[in-house]
Amino acid sequence: MGVSAAVGVLSLVGTPIGNLSDASPRVLDTLRAADVLLCEDTRVTSKLLARFEIRVPLERCDENVIASRVESVLDRVAAGQRVAFVSDAGMPGVSDPGQRLVDAALDEGLRVEVIPGPSAVTCALVASGLSMDHFFFEGFLPRKAGERARRLEALRTVPGALVFYESPHRVAATLDSIAEAYPARRVALVRELTKLHEECVRDVASELARRVRERGELRGECVVVVEGPAEGELAVASAAASGFASPEDAVRKGLASGEPKSALAKRVAKAFGMPRSEAYDLVVSLAR
Length: 288
Description:
Layout: E1 9-13, H1 25-33, E2 36-39, H2 42-51, E3 58-60, H3 66-78, E4 82-86, H4 99-107, E5 112-115, H5 120-128, E6 135-140, H6 145-154, E7 161-166, H7 171-181, E8 186-191, E9 199-204, H8 205-215, E10 222-226, H9 231-242, H10 247-256, H11 261-272, H12 276-287
Helix pairs in contact: 3-4, 6-7, 7-8, 10-11, 10-12, 11-12
């Protein structure tokens, strides 16, 4: 396209995830100043604009059409227009359209700004009360039980909390799968965030799954937060991945292959979550 300078701006605008009062003054000012507002669903965004008496041209730009709209959007920004983009709720690009536009705009040297707003991911993490020093946002898990189980197994060794989005119709089945994969971990079900009936229910995975099944079908979009793995769980998973049943088994096979004692101790300690000194003592005792 040959753009030489960024004279307009592409604004990614975070919008309320439930409570319209969460729209910040900067969000509203950005929407009012936009030459055009791109959105997932014009009917949804029209309600937000009507609430704050904002009049701006709306154009549909959902996941089905965004690829075909990229070039025309960049042309508008390059021509000096203020193009705003919103998803139905929350931060665009987080399990919602938007990333493709940002990527293309940055490649062209165009100006991109993010107007912060509510995000269900961070709100649910805080509401859960679970440790979030590290966390991994997965989005939606597969719908089929087998695929879901395989994905949960792949996430087992992620050293932090896991965050999933889920619909109220499938959340009970998802919690059953989580309980089967991580029965001892605490799990929080957070739903109706920022709304009147906001709720956070937290329990050990197996117990939470039972409680939700007994309640029947829920309402409102759901976020599930799974506690990160304990050191013992990581050690067991690591040992299983190594193919050895026990530290002794690993040491014997390492010694038989001629592996240096110090290197063997380091590897076994890492695989089984042991202090290196303890692993080295095991290596020395079995080497006699």
